[in-house]
Design brief:
This protein has 304 residues and is of the alpha/beta class. It has one domain: Rossmann fold (3-Layer(aba) Sandwich), CATH 3.40.50. The protein has eleven helices and 13 strands. The chain has a seven-stranded parallel sheet, with helices on both faces. A two-stranded parallel sheet has the order 7-10. Helix 1 crosses helix 7.
Length: 304
């Protein structure tokens, strides 16, 4: 298959393009963050420029498209709501329309943050209640994509892994600070179900291969607090876990509101694929094995 990945320099986009390149012909669209020596075709493109989507599709001729492009920083979305609207709503809608016309298959990446986190154990049938500009624009993006292309997959995700900069995921943040022996906070009242980005990538490819469509929660099959997540990382990597201070998120001042109990159920995905997503411990152990095998350095050598 010919696969187009937008946002291919981001945490998910890059790892997805790398995983897919083992079996597919991959084209990765990047904007400002260039990539070198990648095992896939890199296309420089500002997707907000008129005509850019047409040019991108002409160059890649994709069978499958996975849209990872977004403004994903919560506080940046609060500071720049017009940009958040353009990247998180308008661009996905145009992309979905264009994919539908050409007959390719589309996966649009959304977020667990569309929920307010007051209940937890959310299924795809539960009504979202976004708390921030980021979450609101991502929910509206979901709705726009589904309306423009009902055959598209909309995947709500949470993820961690190794990034181009070495600073994009929560796991990297914990490890960078622990390695520097800095005391840091770990929220005991914020729960999430993150997948290792490589496992997420392969699930998305399998979903396309199986012809799925509609809304799915693509997360680890179990969850943890962000404090426990950090402690498990410290143990795996041999760092001092006492450097992580148990903290309530109410003690921290953020520009954007955060949801607390983002525990999502992935039962629908498990039923339709015939297998459950990995558990969090398995994902963490794979993440550690990647470190031992030099995978972070492999990725960061692609940075221009």
């Amino acid at each position: 298959m010919r696969l187009l990945v937008t946002g291919a320099s981001g945490l998910l986009g890059l790892n997805l393009a790398l995983e897919a390149s083992h079996e597919h012909e991959v084209f990765g669209s990047v904007n400002r963050n260039e990539i070198r020596n990648a095992p896939f075709t890199v296309i420089q493109s500002d997707l907000t420029r008129p005509g850019s989507l047409e040019d991108l599709f002409e160059a890649s001729q994709p069978d499958w498209v996975i849209n990872c492009a977004a403004l994903a920083n919560l506080d940046a979305c609060e500071a720049k709501p017009a940009l958040a609207k353009k990247l998180n709503i308008e661009l996905p809608e145009k992309l979905a329309q264009y994919v539908a016309k050409g007959g390719a298959r589309l996966v649009h990446i959304s977020t667990d943050a569309v929920f307010d986190g007051r209940g937890g154990e959310y299924t795809e049938m539960d009504k979202p209640n976004p708390l921030s500009t980021y979450a609101r624009t991502k929910l509206l993006g979901e709705e726009a994509v589904s309306a423009a292309n009902p055959q598209a997959i909309v995947a709500r995700v949470n993820l961690f892994g190794w990034s181009l900069s070495g600073q994009r995921s929560l796991a990297e943040w914990f490890l960078n600070n622990l390695a520097a022996q800095k005391q840091i906070s770990g929220f005991t009242d914020v729960y999430f179900c993150p997948l290792l980005v490589n496992d997420l990538a392969n699930l998305l490819l399998e979903m396309l291969g199986q012809g799925l469509q509609g809304l799915y929660h693509v997360v680890a099959r179990d969850c943890a607090s962000k404090y426990d997540f950090g402690v498990q990382l410290a143990r795996l990597f041999g760092y001092d876990q006492s450097l992580i201070k148990p903290t309530s998120i109410s003690d921290t001042d953020f520009a954007a509101d955060r949801s607390l109990m983002l525990t999502l159920k992935s039962d629908k995905l498990a039923r339709e694929l015939g297998e459950s997503p990995p558990d969090l411990q398995t994902c963490l152990e794979r993440f550690h094995q990647q470190y031992l095998s030099g995978y972070p350095e492999f990725i960061q050598k692609m940075r221009v």
